[in-house]
């Protein structure tokens, strides 16, 4: 007789739950189980057809990430038994565990991450890697080709603890989720040229660190194969979030970034607008 799937999945789920990681079952194809009849037209914690669910109060594994739990009684309950018997994998809610997963779906995305993102804990996936950072943020799909961000209101497949030391969620990852304001909503800008930082010696970075960061930013822009304008804005935002207040950035540094952007087809006007909008978003 074939061993029931729940015998293999539940112990792993219970172990994760005991360590504070909210878990849920996934069916074949890496999708969540469908909602029960009661929840079919509603989102827990919200009104019918509202996509603002809170933690699922239903006894069944409904609403995907909202069903994720650390409660061993729920995980072992009869209502979850059917799902565990047919589950293909265990998933977890990264935001509920206090982490953010940068899901790299192919070799090109991994190459970009290695050149752009701080080293952190890494988990191998079927086609790529999960880079896991300590801290939470909004989840966004397709922030660049082959890259998704999974944290709050999302789930990720559990593929093991991974290797390496988990780093704190960096500004460069947070910046990936920021969309540049629509030109129609921009406030009139008196500034027409790039501006430097607030002045003063940098209290926490070295010239070598800044130079390496600028080189990585240039490479990020150069590697963009689509959504170049959005990539330029996010890159400017990441650089300014680190060095915009400490006085490190000079006109030479800004020119390097603008040159990289113009080599991808951006105009000086677009570069200036993106730089100004990034400064505004950060309150500089």
Can you walk me through this structure?
- This protein is 36% helix and 13% strand.
- The chain is α+β, with helices and mostly antiparallel strands and 284 residues long.
- The strands form 2 sheets. Strands 3, 4, 5, 6, 7 and 9 form a 6-stranded mixed β-sheet that branches. Strands 1-2-8 form a 3-stranded antiparallel β-sheet, covered by helices on one side.
Percent in strands? 5-15%
Number of strands: 9
Computed structural class: alpha+beta
Could you tell me how far the N terminus lies from the C terminus, measured between alpha carbons in angstroms? 66 Å
Low-confidence stretches: 1-7, 45-53, 184-200
Query: Please, what is the oligomeric state?
Result: single chain
Count helical runs: 9
Helix content: 25-40%
SSE string, helix = H, strand = E? HEHHEEHEEEEEEHHHHH
Described by the principal axes of the CA atoms, the overall outline is elongated
The mean pLDDT is 79
Instruction: State Rg.
Output: 22 Å
Largest sheet: 6 strands, mixed
What are the main properties of this structure?
single chain, 284 residues, alpha+beta, 6-stranded mixed beta sheet, 3-stranded antiparallel beta sheet, 36% helix
Topology:
Elements: H1 5-18, E1 23-26, H2 72-75, H3 78-86, E2 89-92, E3 99-104, H4 107-116, E4 121-124, E5 129-134, E6 140-144, E7 147-150, E8 156-157, E9 167-168, H5 171-176, H6 207-223, H7 228-243, H8 251-263, H9 268-281
Parallel strand pairs: 5-9
Antiparallel strand pairs: 1-2, 2-8, 3-5, 3-7, 4-5, 6-7
